[in-house]
From TrEMBL, chain A:
Keywords for this protein: Hydrolase, Membrane, Mitochondrion, Mitochondrion inner membrane, Protease
A Pfam family of this chain: Peptidase_S26
Domain (Peptidase S26): residue spans on this chain: 13-96, 103-144
Subunit structure: Heterodimer of 2 subunits, IMMPL1 and IMMPL2.
Protein name: Mitochondrial inner membrane protease subunit
Domain of life of the native organism: Eukaryota
Annotated organism of origin: Cyprinus carpio
From TrEMBL, chain B:
Protein name per UniProt: Mitochondrial inner membrane protease subunit
Active site location: 45, 88
Record EC number: 3.4.21.-
Species name: Cyprinus carpio
Lineage: Eukaryota, Metazoa, Chordata, Craniata, Vertebrata
Chain ranges of the Peptidase S26 domain: 19-101, 107-146
Top-level lineage group: Eukaryota
Subcellular location field: Mitochondrion inner membrane
Major localization class: mitochondrion
Class in the EC hierarchy, top level: hydrolase
GO cellular component: mitochondrial inner membrane peptidase complex
Keyword entries, A-Z: Hydrolase, Membrane, Mitochondrion, Mitochondrion inner membrane, Protease
Length: 190, 203
């Protein structure tokens, strides 16, 4: 009886390890849901929003200017940051604030990206800690999940801030595409 | 009818083969990700500790538990090319004061390693592009810590089948011998001369 119990335990552990590895690889190479906190990406992503970040673009090096990315924080290896890519390697970016008289520019070095939050007044980003290496980027945010009344609405995030959004409603059995005027009415109700 | 069944059987076998491949591929990937992997190093920047085309084993456990210490040899992603890896020694952790000027400079300059970063330098200081040129590297770029190196045997080869352990007075250097190849366990130490003397004494 003890032997049977031991065999069952070992097979259970084996299955757990097996499916855990498969799930880990799915999160690593396909995408994962992330809960964002902080005000640095308002109004695009607000506090406690759940977003879906896909890993395929990062692994194929297809991150482009205007993408919202999740990256490891350069100051804390256990924290992640969610910012928008404002400059790729070789681009010229403006480092001075909007209120400065003399504008200063800098070039993004090779293998680095320049990140900025959408909420420029309340965001710690590359304007304070400089460009970050591309290898710190974990994934590209492509969807945002929001609950409105009893349904879950999924948004495809725009490439540039305050751009037009397309939304679709995620229901168990079908997907509905909304027009822009319908979406703008929901935006006013928020 | 018979060909239909054959085709269906072949299709089922293909799907199950792909399923098993994906399954064991994921398990192997997680083993490389969380335990360790063999890496082939190239370049002269870590001589004499690690020479060109040396095979080393880098373990990932220290990195995930944030146990990388000063003096460890680490494999990290290059800050200038996300597809390349670099192999250097950790000279300073966050908050440490490191010397940025060369040995020939008259005025020594120092800098403090910022939070969440490490200062990497190669052992071959004259021929190494490291933090002295591109600054401190974020800790999150570190992939693993090098702990074993495959030691190349001479032309005669080793014939002993028992493991051989030797220690030197300054530092411990363990050497295990096998008929075909041997491994050298690289421990945490900052003096490169001790390493080279240990390697010489084992040959």
């Amino acid at each position: 009886m003890f032997r049977g119990f031991l065999v069952k335990t070992i097979s259970f552990v084996g299955y757990t390890v097996q499916y855990g590895c498969i799930a880990h690889c799915a999160f690593e190479y396909v995408g994962e849901f992330v809960s964002c906190s902080g005000p640095s990406m308002e109004p695009t992503i607000t506090n406690h929003d759940v977003v879906f970040s896909e890993r395929v673009s990062r692994n194929l090096c297809r991150i482009q200017k205007g993408d919202i990315v999740i990256a490891k924080s350069p100051f804390d290896p256990k924290m992640n940051i969610c910012k928008r890519v404002m400059g790729l390697e070789g681009d010229k970016v403006c480092t001075s604030g909007p209120s400065d008289i003399f504008k200063t520019h800098t070039y993004v070095p090779r293998g680095h990206v320049w990140l900025e939050g959408d909420n420029l007044r309340n965001s710690t980003d590359s304007r304070s800690y400089g460009p970050i290496p591309y290898a710190l980027i974990r994934g590209r945010v492509c969807l945002k999940v929001m609950r409105i009344q009893s349904h879950f609405l999924t948004y495809i995030l725009p490439q540039r801030p305050n751009h037009k959004l397309f939304e679709f409603e995620l229901l168990p059995f079908y997907v509905v595409f909304f027009q822009e005027f319908f979406f703008s009415s929901i935006k006013q109700n928020k």
